[in-house]
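Before relying on records like the one below, remember that each one covers exactly one chain. Contacts with other chains, cofactors or solvent are not represented anywhere in the record.
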Amino acid sequence: MTFKNGFQILDQRVVKLNFGINDQFTAKEDTKAVDLAPVMNMVYEKESENKIIATLSIKIAGDDVPFHLEIFLSGFFQLAGDQMSDEALDKLVHINCAGVLFPFLRQIVADTTLKGGFQQLLLPSVNFVESYKDLIAQRKATEEIED
């Protein structure tokens, strides 16, 4: 199978998974909902000119949550087509690679919380295009502060 100006996932694996019950947590009587406030992050490294390892992570922690969860899921991607600029690669990873990895991460979160004795946590869909726009805006704001 050939790919033109695209990519394919070769493999994915959990490289880190930490789960623990928060003994300090006490449920509030006035609400059934708990704001878990998950924090997601995406990092990547070039393994070679046409291979990258992209890692999508999620962290749920704090005093007001019933459990702590941290997962790092790496995807191994084959790039195709012409060599990409750093900016194009960054965009591809944060939008496309994240979009490919997210369903795997979502399932791992759901399985882990269920097996941990909690109601299955189903992460909501993520608009990775908007997320990437927010990331670029944060980077620009940081650059302006540093200048």
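Residues 86-115 form the longest helix (30 residues).
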